[in-house]
């Protein structure tokens, strides 16, 4: 009997059954679809209603001001707002995929609203031509629209996410089209929008690049109405003579043809899945036509709105919302009158089992081989049911059959139960999202949760996301932001407690994002309290900066040890604060201070000097000045007596004065003073000699260069100024004279007085210059016999070297000298003899 009552509600169209269960009795009051423009979102989405200003209607107790009202699919009011938008009459209204309401007025202005009837800025216009010619018709699809102007021009917004309009090719027709239909970009070969335009006795295909005429015998005579199927493969056409045709999108053949009773075009033409087409006229039954067989009529005494879905059509009236769909095969196999399929017998077996009848076992034995298919059919049929008690019964039948089925996937029933619990939760009239299972799978759980969040159904969204194992952070984040926006009267500490109580439910949630929203809403104190709970410094620090908590941001960045974050804070404070305030903030913090100094040493010397002066580090300023003087010396202009030497000396003088103010840097002060003095002398020498060879050389090099140039007076002046010792003076002058090979002057210099260094510098200078004869003048004068022996050896005089070493009585020296002359057999023998003699004398 249960099977009979279920199947009795079905209608047969050729060999396919259709059913039309009522989803909701509409909860709204005083809504007449015939007096309003209505836009219904697919996938059980919201319904937008506004009074149709193109009709003359009688006002009852309502205001003359038009209101845009948004309802759930069950007729529960979500929000409303007064319509005050300029631009002329409202031409078209539709929902986008992300549930944004698009409203297009006569002058081509596009107004957008969210589900809470809040306008979304900015408004967009379709262009100057639309403004001048006025829009007369709009055809929407999932995420775009095509508009027709009074001049016959077509304008398109291919994607509402981009909101950029473009003009399609001109048709060249004098009259306006009878009808239009759109092939979505994802179904076209070119990837662009294609518009099917019924003009005259044919159909044109219009896109951005051109216009094509549909050829063939499929279309004969004017077309009154067209609609493209959900998958973009088929086209339903209502002709001028009252015929309904279905062809493929390429017009290669007629798949369905039916003569309607009326030649008047239907007010609405819609696909019911992919198997049938619905036609609706006022004051006549709703007509459903299939590929074959007699059509089905549905009788209504009130206006209707057809809402196509992927697997059927929602039928909206003033009082109810119904869902017309093809009955799934699994449901037919169970509930069809007289069905003996395994699924029907399994369902019947459960009924006998509940009545404790032995026939339950008999049914199971009959379908033992087909039991897995029967269980699967019961599970699938339960998924397609809207009635909860019928879902439960079908799932019990599946569970009953699964107990006798060893090779069935055990978690299949659990998965279906989970899906149905989610669907039943959102189908509740208070929520009003009547999704079918096919729509749910196509929509995906994540999109469903996002829609619940946007509708401020946070608790349900949280429970569903937890139930299906999805991340709850998005739900809690949106709830927290919405709570902040809506809680202007709640004090910051109280609101913080409320927020933290929920935010702690989700580990790793971004407190910084919630704090940023609080700051955006003007609650800076709340934002500062929230960001304290953010564990990630990379998110915490930038937000602290944005809300003006620079000191806290610097502390958190320092604690993190992330130098990039510290630099981020430093640069931010540097730009916003006065220098002295900035210096005070970093002085007591070693890491920021050191990072600032490292950066400023490379790029901001002047600012770094200000910092050191403000903190009393005069020696650091002096070192910077000294470094600047060296950098100035690298300038190519700092040569040939350039005036840049003057600024260099002044910088060094300043450094010397600063060093002098601290007792700990006496050495640096003296060094800077002498450096400045040396630079002055070198500068004078370059000016007088016109040779850029003195500056930045050492004192020794300066003296040596003066002697080489023959400027002995200048060399003596440098010696006197810098108190060069006599020993150093002799070494420098000897080698300088040897460099210019002035042997006569060298000899004269050696005889001026007894050299304080001895004659070793003279010998080495002559040997280095490869002048053995000159070296022989000074070697005999060497007082140290060992030095004399080594000097003779360096100029190759073995006998004299051996004699000097023998006189020194140094056997080790004789051994070393033997190695020097090891290729000379006679010399080696001499050294051996002398060493043996020394050894004998020692014994």
TrEMBL record:
InterPro entries assigned: VPS16, Vps16_C, Vps16_C_sf, Vps16_N, WD40_repeat_dom_sf
Main location, first listed in the record: membrane
Protein's UniProt keywords contain Methyltransferase: no
Membrane topology recorded in Swiss-Prot or TrEMBL: Peripheral membrane protein
Keywords: Membrane, Vacuole
Annotated ranges, domain Vps16 C-terminal: 509-824
Residues covered by the Vps16 N-terminal domain: 8-412
Keyword Cytoplasm: no
A GO BP entry: intracellular protein transport
Subcellular location(s) of the protein: Vacuole membrane
GO molecular function: actin binding
GO CC annotations, alphabetized: endosome; HOPS complex; lysosomal membrane
Pfam families: Vps16_C, Vps16_N
Function: Required for vacuole biogenesis and vacuole enlargment in dividing and expanding cells. Involved in the docking or fusion of prevacuolar vesicles.
Family recorded in the similarity comment: Belongs to the VPS16 family.
Protein name per UniProt: Protein VACUOLELESS1
Origin species: Hibiscus trionum
């Amino acid at each position: 009997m249960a099977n009979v009552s279920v199947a009795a509600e079905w209608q047969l169209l050729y060999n396919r059954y259709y059913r039309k269960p009522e989803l909701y009795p509409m909860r709204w009051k005083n809504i007449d679809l015939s007096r309003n423009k209505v836009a219904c979102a697919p996938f059980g989405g919201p319904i937008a209603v506004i009074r149709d200003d193109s009709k003359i209607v009688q006002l009852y107790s309502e205001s003359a001001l038009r209101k845009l009202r948004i309802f759930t699919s069950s007729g529960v009011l979500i929000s409303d707002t007064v319509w005050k938008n300029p631009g002329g009459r409202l031409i078209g209204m539709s929902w986008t995929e992300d549930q944004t309401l698009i409203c297009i007025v006569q002058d081509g202005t596009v107004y957008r609203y969210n589900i809470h009837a809040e306008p979304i800025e900015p408004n967009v216009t379709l262009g100057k031509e639309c403004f001048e010619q006025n829009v007369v018709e709009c055809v929407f699809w999932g995420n775009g629209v095509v508009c027709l102007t009074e001049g016959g021009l077509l304008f398109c917004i291919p994607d509402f996410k981009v909101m950029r309009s473009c003009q399609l090719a001109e048709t060249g027709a004098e009259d306006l089209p009878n009808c239009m239909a759109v092939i979505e970009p994802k179904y076209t070969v070119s990837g662009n929008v294609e518009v099917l335009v019924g003009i005259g006795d044919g159909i044109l295909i219009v896109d951005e690049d051109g216009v094509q005429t549909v050829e063939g015998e499929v279309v004969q005579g004017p077309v009154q109405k067209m609609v493209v199927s959900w998958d973009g493969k088929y086209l339903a056409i209502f002709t001028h003579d009252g015929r309904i045709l279905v062809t493929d999108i390429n017009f290669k053949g007629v798949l369905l043809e039916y003569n309607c009773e009326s030649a008047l075009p239907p007010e609405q033409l819609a696909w019911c899945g992919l198997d049938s087409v619905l036609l609706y006229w006022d004051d006549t039954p709703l007509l459903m036509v299939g590929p074959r067989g007699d059509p089905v009529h549905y009788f209504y005494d009130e206006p209707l709105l057809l809402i196509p879905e992927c697997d059927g059509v929602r039928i909206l009236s003033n009082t109810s919302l119904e869902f017309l769909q093809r009955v799934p095969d699994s449901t037919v196999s169970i509930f069809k009158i007289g069905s003996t399929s395994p699924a029907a017998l399994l369902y019947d077996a459960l009924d006998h089992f509940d009545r404790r009848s032995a026939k339950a076992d008999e049914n199971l034995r009959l379908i033992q081989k087909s039991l897995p298919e029967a269980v699967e059919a019961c599970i699938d049929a339960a998924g397609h049911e809207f009635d909860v008690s019928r879902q439960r019964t079908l799932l019990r039948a599946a569970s009953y059959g699964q107990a006798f089925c060893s090779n069935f996937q055990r978690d299949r029933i659990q998965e279906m139960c989970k899906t149905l619990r989610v669907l039943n939760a959102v189908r509740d009239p208070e929520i009003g999202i009547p999704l079918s299972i096919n729509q749910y799978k196509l929509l995906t759980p994540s999109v469903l949760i996002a829609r619940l969040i946007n509708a401020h159904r946070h608790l349900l969204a949280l429970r569903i996301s937890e139930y299906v194992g999805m991340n709850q952070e998005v739900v809690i984040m949106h709830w927290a932001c919405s709570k902040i926006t809506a809680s202007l009267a709640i004090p910051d500490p109280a609101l913080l407690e409320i927020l933290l109580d929920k935010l702690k439910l989700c580990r790793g949630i971004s407190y910084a994002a919630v704090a940023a929203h609080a700051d955006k809403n003007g609650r800076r104190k709340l934002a500062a309290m929230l960001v304290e709970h953010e564990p990630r410094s990379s998110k915490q620090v930038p937000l602290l900066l944005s809300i003006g908590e620079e000191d806290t941001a610097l502390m958190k960045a320092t604690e993190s040890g992330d130098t990039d974050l510290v630099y981020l804070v430093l640069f931010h404070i540097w730009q916003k604060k006065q220098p002295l305030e900035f210096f005070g903030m970093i002085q007591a913090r070693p890491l920021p201070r050191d990072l600032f100094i490292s950066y400023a040493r490379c790029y901001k010397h002047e600012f770094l000097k200000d910092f050191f002066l403000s903190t009393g580090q005069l020696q650091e300023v002096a070192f910077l000045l000294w470094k600047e003087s060296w950098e100035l010396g690298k300038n190519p202009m700092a040569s040939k007596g350039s005036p840049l030497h003057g600024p260099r000396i002044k910088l060094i003088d300043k450094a010397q004065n600063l060093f002098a103010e601290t007792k700990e840097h006496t050495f640096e002060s003296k060094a800077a003073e002498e450096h400045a003095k040396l630079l002055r002398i070198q500068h004078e020498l370059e000016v007088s000699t016109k040779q850029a060879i003195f500056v930045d050389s050492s004192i020794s090099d300066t003296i040596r260069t003066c002697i080489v140039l023959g400027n002995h007076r200048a060399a003596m002046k440098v010696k006197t100024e810098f108190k060069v010792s006599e020993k150093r003076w002799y070494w420098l002058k000897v080698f300088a004279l040897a460099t210019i090979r002035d042997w006569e002057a060298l000899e004269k210099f050696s005889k001026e007085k007894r050299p304080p260094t001895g004659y070793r510098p003279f010998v080495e200078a002559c040997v280095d210059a490869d002048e053995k004869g000159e070296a022989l003048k000074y070697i005999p004068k060497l007082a140290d016999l060992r030095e004399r022996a080594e000097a003779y050896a360096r100029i190759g005089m073995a006998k004299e070297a051996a004699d000097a070493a023998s006189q020194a009585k140094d056997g080790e020296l004789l051994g070393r000298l033997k190695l020097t002359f090891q290729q000379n057999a006679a010399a080696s023998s001499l050294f051996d003899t002398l060493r043996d003699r020394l050894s004998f004398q020692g014994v």
